[in-house]
Amino acid sequence: MLKVHADELPVPVDDRDAADLVARHQVERGAGLVVGLINGAAAGRVEQGRLDTGAGVQVTEGAHQRGLAAAGPGDRGPAAVLWDMDGTLVDTEPYWMRAESELVAAHGGTWTEADARAVVGFDLLDSAAYLRRVGGVDMDPVALVELMMDRVVEQMADHPPWQPGALGLLAALREASIPCVLVTMSWRRLAAAVVELLPAGTFAGAVVGDEVPRGKPHPDPYLAAARLLGVEPGACIALEDSPTGAQSARAAGCRVVAVPHLVDVPADLVDAMVPSLTDVDVAMLRRLAGG
Fold first, then answer.
1. Same domain, 99 and 87
2. Who contacts 29 (Cβ-Cβ below 8 Å, separation ≥6)?
3. How far apart, in whole angstroms, are the C-alpha atoms of residue 49 and residue 61?
4. Which of 124, 196, 268, 277 has the fewest beta carbons under 10 Å from its own?
5. Do 180 and 284 belong together in one domain?
6. Residue 16: is its pLDDT beyond 60?
């Protein structure tokens, strides 16, 4: 396993520059959501420049061809970078924990920090089952998840908590023509709220938790992400902050870069471990893909 320290790698695009791009996008964007994240679209429909392929996978027009091009002979990989969202792209885990604690308290239960950490990276319905069982929240699981998502969206509406280095790395990957796919156990409307804040085309598509047969730690989400671009999972690099997500990516055959956040990630699940996305650049990912 490769371990990378803060002083070993340059950051190719400064987060401040990327933040300027995001700010300009927020001023210029229209009312529609971007990169195939329009909520509620039916499988197989083409609408507002994107194709919905079903099974939790939506891809912008041309992304499939870009993915194939990225994996072509002689090209310097990776074929794609697959991003976890909560805890990796954005620091929403504290928002989830606050929502969980408030909900359990409202139902007269007890919710500890250990309980909150136990569900980091889980499929949201699995988290709901845990809240019902351990926290005593007597609610329909889907309604429970929707209520928690409402609270998370409220908390992040004014100031999305981008993880350090995330915006810079996204900009650098776009400059290098390496496609990115969001692979999250959050449901589509929350993923859409996050991606809408980024410049159009930042993500080629998304795999979301409410539209896959099995969530993390099963391999299904990452297999779907690779299939979205028409590339092999082994040619992709996954960025993850939790053992649940790392296990999912590893089971799918992806190379895995762990950026541990609230919980430790076992070394045997990953190919590289870094303290922050500020320690990741395109050159590092290419070396890892070639290794």
1. no
2. 196, 200
3. 6
4. 268
5. yes
6. no
Residue-wise pLDDT for 220-272, tens only, equals 999 999 999 999 999 999 999 999 999 999 999 999 999 998 889 999 999 99
Interior/surface letters 148-164, b for 16+ CB within 10 angstroms, e for the rest: bbebbbebbeeebebbe
CATH of the domain at 18: 3.40.50.1000
Distance CA 98, CA 247 (A): 26
pLDDT digits (tens, 9 = 90+) for 181-219: 999 998 898 899 899 889 999 999 999 998 899 999 999
Residue ranges making up the domain that contains 40: 2-91+162-290
Distance of CA 87 to the CA centre of its chain: 8
Bridge partners (DSSP) of residue 266 are none
Identify whether residues 28 and 122 lie together within a single domain. Answer: no
E strand intervals along the chain: 2-3, 46-47, 50-54, 57-60, 80-83, 180-183, 205-207, 236-240, 255-258, 272-273
The HSE-up count of residue 4 (CA atoms within 13 Å, CB side) is 26
pLDDT at 76 over 80: no
DSSP string covering 31-46: SS--TT--TTPPTT-E
In angstroms, rounded to a whole number, what is the distance separating the alpha carbons of residues 14 and 68?
Answer: 28
